[in-house]
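User: Second chain of the day. Same drill as before.
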Amino acid sequence: MMNDLRTQKTELRNKFLRIRSDIPDAQRAEWDAKIHAAFFNTAAFRYCSLILAYASVRGECDTIGLIKACLERGKRVALPVSDAENFRLEYRLITDIADLETGKYDIPAPDGDCQLVTDFSSSLCLVPGVVFDRAGWRIGYGKGYYDRFLAEYKGSKIGLAYRSCITDHVPAGRNDVKVDLLICEKGAMPVK
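Assistant: Same format as last time:
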């Protein structure tokens, strides 16, 4: 059963990575702007003081511009650093995009001088995914870092995705954690 689930997820991951990579740059920029606007209109954004973000890679919805705009709006922003030995995430505060360096898996991450976050009250977490379903389940890159973190996280969990990367059903295992809200270029989509 576990191998079957793993195979299904791998096939879906590969399919949606191809779909995402085929989005033309101009279309992607237009959609990113709409996703950013929809995010800034959420109650979760308005009422949080800390945003747990991630640096977009591999054709993900742009988060670098989103992070800059959050900082300009006076929000505190933290990004994850991967603890590869334990497959866990720790978040560190940044004050500028210049605080990022190339981290594990070539993903930009805060440098070692950035302050560790231990208090996640009044925060929301942006959760990356290759594909999401309408119920909020997601497939990431397969290492389980986010699911481990989210299993203990109490704040709002928001997925950012292009509409073409939201499907009817994503298989989920017992350790998977779903998001509370999806935002695509069509707007915010409460999960079912």
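Residues 2-190 form a domain with the Rossmann fold fold (CATH 3.40.50.10420).

User: Great, on to the next one.
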